[in-house]
Amino acid sequence: MSREINQNGRSFLSIAAMIIVAAQLGLIGFVKAAPSKTEPANQPMIEVQQMASTAIRLPVEGEMPSLGSGAEWLNSQPLTAAGLRGKVVLIEFWTYTCINWRRQLPYVRAWADKYKGHGLVVIGVSAPEFGFEKNISNIRWAARDMHVDYPIVIDNDYALWSAFNNEYWPALYFVDAQGHIRHHQFGEGEYEQSERVIQQLLAEAGAKGVGRELVSVTGRGAEAGPDWDDLRSAENYVGYERTENFESPGGPVPDKGGVYAVPAALRLNHWALAGDWTMKKQAVELNKAKGGIVYRFHARDLHLVMGQGTQGKPVRFRVLIDGHPPGKAHGVDIDAQGNGTITEPRMYQLIRQVKPITDRQFEIEFLDSGAEVFSFTFG
């Protein structure tokens, strides 16, 4: 889910310093994890393009760890590392509210479909960031809504996360037919190289008829690629543990209800609460109806991870941009007048603008109490 891009740490392989700096500035789509819509995911339009024939150097990075014995699986009977010998395996770490994973997903779906007959097995590892992402019913809903048909293993205790020494959502690990990890990809992007790796590992395993064509995916809705050129806002959590640039006078009051106000002006990437809220470690929860959030941002897309909180009832809301209904700039989860409803805990796409992209002021007012808000993400 969209993951905060300025919290990168080390990986088990070195990452160039310039990449880390870019990530800290919000320009690279991956983030370090901190373990502790109903938007329809449309099927991508797929065409093909010719791939260059240059072989990729793929040294052994390690052995694929055990996939565990007690984990719950979706879309498959439990799989084992030993049982997968002879297959090329793509391990994909994700959590369903991550915008970076959502934008990577159409490629992984396309690879799973194209290469399954040639010996590729894709395994999604659901490793939660927020508490509601541990709920099996929520994961089942997300897998169905987002068309994740390949096997999924539930990693609520981060056993696989730790076994792979993983630190990122999303993360891909490419395993050859002998069980060796030969390549990895942290974050979205590098799709051509990733598919070339798949093809090369299949060829090494003796697969016939793989070909050298690459899928070309057009993501829709939240799966559309980001507008990197106009992206000036990085992910921001709203719980007190990790939030940044909170501007309501008096600052946050952790774990206690309080009435917050919006200052007369907000600087870019600063935000404020309005109304009666409780700021918790991971989220803010609205105690009384008619409360809101204001955020100054610069990006084509704005998403908000939200749920119904402890009340569990649908929560109506209304969005404004620069004080007006969004019109054609509305995201897939609201109408042109800015009206929407929280119906399940997930990421909601609220704004998708057309150029020119400038600094804008986003406002959301919740017409019912009980809204729980976790993080802003942009694209």
Question: Which helices and strands occur, and which strands form pairs?
Answer:
Blueprint lengths: L16 H8 L6 E2 L12 E6 L11 E2 L9 E2 L13 E7 L4 H17 L4 E7 L9 H10 L6 E3 L4 H5 L4 E2 L1 E5 L4 E7 L4 H14 L8 E6 L17 E2 L19 E4 L10 E9 L4 E3 L4 E7 L3 E7 L7 E7 L17 E4 L3 E7 L7 E7 L5 E7 L1
Parallel strand pairs: 5-6, 6-7
Antiparallel strand pairs: 1-8, 2-11, 3-10, 4-7, 5-9, 9-10, 12-22, 13-14, 14-15, 14-16, 15-22, 16-21, 17-20, 17-22, 18-19, 18-21
Look at the helices and sheets and give the structural class. alpha+beta
Let me know the number of strands.
22
What string, H for helix and E for strand, traces the elements in order? Answer: HEEEEEHEHEHEEEHEEEEEEEEEEEE
The chain-level mean pLDDT equals: 88
Helical segment tally? Answer: 5
How would you summarize what this structure contains?
The chain is an alpha+beta fold and 379 residues long. It has 5 helices and 22 strands. The strands form 4 sheets. Strands 12, 13, 14, 15, 16, 17, 18, 19, 20, 21 and 22 form an 11-stranded antiparallel sheet that branches.
